[in-house]
Amino acid sequence: MLSNQEAQYLLNLEKSLSKPNQTIDLSKKKNRIELISHQDSDYGFWLEITTNQKIILKTSIHHMESNSFIGLLRIDYKGGHHNPATVKSTLPSFLEPYADKWFEPTEPHMHIYVEGYRDLAWAIPLIDIDFPVKEITQPSDLSELIFNFARKINLKSLLNIQQAIL
Q: Which residues in 53-80 are b (16+ Cβ under 10 Å) and which e?
Protein backbone atom coordinates (compact mmCIF):
# COMPACT_ATOMS: atom_id res chain seq x y z
CA MET A 1 0.00 0.00 0.00
CA LEU A 2 1.17 3.50 -0.81
CA SER A 3 0.55 6.71 1.06
CA ASN A 4 -1.22 9.51 -0.81
CA GLN A 5 2.10 11.39 -0.91
CA GLU A 6 3.91 8.39 -2.42
CA ALA A 7 1.21 8.01 -5.07
CA GLN A 8 1.49 11.70 -5.95
CA TYR A 9 5.29 11.37 -6.11
CA LEU A 10 4.91 8.50 -8.60
CA LEU A 11 2.47 10.46 -10.74
CA ASN A 12 4.78 13.49 -10.76
CA LEU A 13 7.88 11.55 -11.84
CA GLU A 14 8.88 12.21 -15.43
CA LYS A 15 8.15 9.09 -17.44
CA SER A 16 9.17 7.85 -20.86
CA LEU A 17 8.33 4.86 -23.03
CA SER A 18 10.53 1.86 -22.20
CA LYS A 19 10.61 1.11 -25.96
CA PRO A 20 10.68 4.44 -27.83
CA ASN A 21 8.93 3.43 -31.07
CA GLN A 22 5.78 1.83 -29.69
CA THR A 23 2.45 2.56 -31.32
CA ILE A 24 -0.90 2.88 -29.61
CA ASP A 25 -3.27 1.07 -31.96
CA LEU A 26 -6.83 2.19 -31.20
CA SER A 27 -8.26 -0.67 -33.27
CA LYS A 28 -7.09 -3.05 -30.50
CA LYS A 29 -9.27 -3.63 -27.44
CA LYS A 30 -6.27 -3.19 -25.15
CA ASN A 31 -2.97 -1.36 -25.45
CA ARG A 32 -0.49 -1.74 -22.62
CA ILE A 33 2.71 0.27 -22.75
CA GLU A 34 5.56 -0.01 -20.28
CA LEU A 35 6.91 3.26 -18.90
CA ILE A 36 10.11 4.03 -17.02
CA SER A 37 11.39 6.98 -15.07
CA HIS A 38 14.97 8.17 -15.43
CA GLN A 39 14.43 10.36 -12.35
CA ASP A 40 13.88 7.30 -10.15
CA SER A 41 14.71 4.00 -11.82
CA ASP A 42 13.41 2.00 -8.84
CA TYR A 43 9.89 2.41 -10.22
CA GLY A 44 8.16 1.01 -13.28
CA PHE A 45 4.75 1.80 -14.73
CA TRP A 46 2.38 0.79 -17.44
CA LEU A 47 -0.11 2.86 -19.33
CA GLU A 48 -3.19 0.96 -20.43
CA ILE A 49 -5.84 2.04 -22.91
CA THR A 50 -8.89 -0.21 -23.07
CA THR A 51 -12.01 -0.06 -25.19
CA ASN A 52 -14.95 -2.43 -25.13
CA GLN A 53 -18.72 -2.52 -25.56
CA LYS A 54 -19.36 -1.38 -21.98
CA ILE A 55 -16.74 1.36 -21.61
CA ILE A 56 -15.90 3.43 -24.69
CA LEU A 57 -12.50 4.27 -23.32
CA LYS A 58 -10.67 3.56 -20.12
CA THR A 59 -7.21 5.07 -19.74
CA SER A 60 -5.11 4.23 -16.72
CA ILE A 61 -1.63 4.31 -15.25
CA HIS A 62 -0.43 1.66 -12.82
CA HIS A 63 2.70 1.51 -10.72
CA MET A 64 4.45 -1.87 -11.04
CA GLU A 65 6.07 -3.22 -7.91
CA SER A 66 7.33 -6.77 -7.26
CA ASN A 67 5.00 -8.35 -9.82
CA SER A 68 2.00 -6.46 -8.46
CA PHE A 69 0.23 -3.44 -9.84
CA ILE A 70 -1.18 -0.47 -8.00
CA GLY A 71 -3.62 1.74 -9.88
CA LEU A 72 -2.68 5.41 -9.59
CA LEU A 73 -5.07 7.18 -11.95
CA ARG A 74 -7.77 6.18 -14.43
CA ILE A 75 -10.33 7.95 -16.57
CA ASP A 76 -13.55 6.18 -17.57
CA TYR A 77 -16.00 7.19 -20.25
CA LYS A 78 -19.28 5.25 -20.33
CA GLY A 79 -18.53 3.21 -17.22
CA GLY A 80 -20.62 3.20 -14.04
CA HIS A 81 -19.01 3.41 -10.59
CA HIS A 82 -19.91 3.75 -6.91
CA ASN A 83 -17.61 5.61 -4.50
CA PRO A 84 -17.18 4.27 -0.97
CA ALA A 85 -19.57 5.63 1.66
CA THR A 86 -16.95 5.57 4.42
CA VAL A 87 -14.74 8.65 4.77
CA LYS A 88 -11.37 7.82 6.32
CA SER A 89 -8.80 10.34 7.53
CA THR A 90 -6.67 9.62 4.44
CA LEU A 91 -9.35 10.86 2.04
CA PRO A 92 -8.37 14.21 0.48
CA SER A 93 -10.95 16.88 1.31
CA PHE A 94 -11.75 17.56 -2.36
CA LEU A 95 -13.18 14.03 -2.62
CA GLU A 96 -15.35 14.20 0.50
CA PRO A 97 -18.42 15.65 -1.32
CA TYR A 98 -18.40 12.55 -3.55
CA ALA A 99 -18.70 9.97 -0.74
CA ASP A 100 -21.29 7.30 -1.63
CA LYS A 101 -21.77 8.87 -5.09
CA TRP A 102 -23.07 6.70 -7.91
CA PHE A 103 -21.68 7.52 -11.35
CA GLU A 104 -24.02 6.65 -14.16
CA PRO A 105 -22.43 5.28 -17.36
CA THR A 106 -23.17 8.66 -18.96
CA GLU A 107 -20.96 10.52 -16.44
CA PRO A 108 -17.24 10.48 -17.36
CA HIS A 109 -15.05 10.43 -14.27
CA MET A 110 -11.45 10.20 -13.06
CA HIS A 111 -10.44 7.54 -10.54
CA ILE A 112 -7.77 8.56 -8.04
CA TYR A 113 -5.60 6.45 -5.75
CA VAL A 114 -6.45 7.06 -2.08
CA GLU A 115 -4.51 5.50 0.77
CA GLY A 116 -6.52 3.05 2.87
CA TYR A 117 -8.96 2.07 0.09
CA ARG A 118 -8.80 -0.55 -2.64
CA ASP A 119 -7.07 0.64 -5.81
CA LEU A 120 -8.89 3.41 -7.63
CA ALA A 121 -11.99 3.09 -5.44
CA TRP A 122 -12.57 6.86 -5.52
CA ALA A 123 -13.64 8.91 -8.51
CA ILE A 124 -14.54 12.50 -9.28
CA PRO A 125 -16.66 13.73 -12.23
CA LEU A 126 -14.56 15.11 -15.08
CA ILE A 127 -16.90 18.09 -15.21
CA ASP A 128 -15.65 19.09 -11.73
CA ILE A 129 -11.91 19.01 -12.47
CA ASP A 130 -9.44 20.66 -14.79
CA PHE A 131 -9.17 17.98 -17.47
CA PRO A 132 -9.82 19.23 -21.01
CA VAL A 133 -11.53 16.19 -22.56
CA LYS A 134 -14.88 16.01 -20.80
CA GLU A 135 -16.49 13.52 -23.19
CA ILE A 136 -15.77 11.37 -26.23
CA THR A 137 -18.00 12.29 -29.15
CA GLN A 138 -15.78 11.65 -32.18
CA PRO A 139 -12.65 9.61 -33.01
CA SER A 140 -10.31 12.62 -32.75
CA ASP A 141 -11.34 12.98 -29.08
CA LEU A 142 -9.54 9.70 -28.36
CA SER A 143 -6.17 11.11 -29.42
CA GLU A 144 -6.82 14.30 -27.45
CA LEU A 145 -7.67 12.23 -24.39
CA ILE A 146 -4.48 10.18 -24.66
CA PHE A 147 -2.26 13.24 -25.17
CA ASN A 148 -3.86 15.06 -22.22
CA PHE A 149 -3.66 11.98 -20.01
CA ALA A 150 0.03 11.68 -20.96
CA ARG A 151 0.54 15.26 -19.76
CA LYS A 152 -1.34 14.51 -16.54
CA ILE A 153 0.95 11.57 -15.71
CA ASN A 154 4.08 13.49 -16.79
CA LEU A 155 4.89 11.30 -19.81
CA LYS A 156 7.64 13.06 -21.76
CA SER A 157 7.90 10.68 -24.74
CA LEU A 158 6.15 11.39 -28.00
CA LEU A 159 3.21 9.08 -28.59
CA ASN A 160 2.43 7.48 -31.93
CA ILE A 161 -1.32 6.85 -32.10
CA GLN A 162 -2.86 4.80 -34.87
CA GLN A 163 -6.55 5.64 -35.19
CA ALA A 164 -9.10 2.86 -35.48
CA ILE A 165 -10.85 2.51 -38.81
CA LEU A 166 -14.55 2.98 -38.18
A: eeebbbbbbbbeeeeeebbbbbbbbbbe
Range of the domain at 140: 4-162
Supply the pTM of this predicted model: 0.88
Spell out the per-residue pLDDT of the chain, length 166, in tens: 889 999 999 999 999 999 988 888 877 888 888 999 999 988 889 888 887 655 555 666 676 655 678 889 999 888 889 999 999 999 999 999 999 999 998 899 999 999 999 989 999 999 999 999 998 887 778 888 889 999 999 999 888 888 765 4
Angle at 156 between CA 62 and CA 41, to 5 degrees: 60
Report how many domains make up the chain. 1
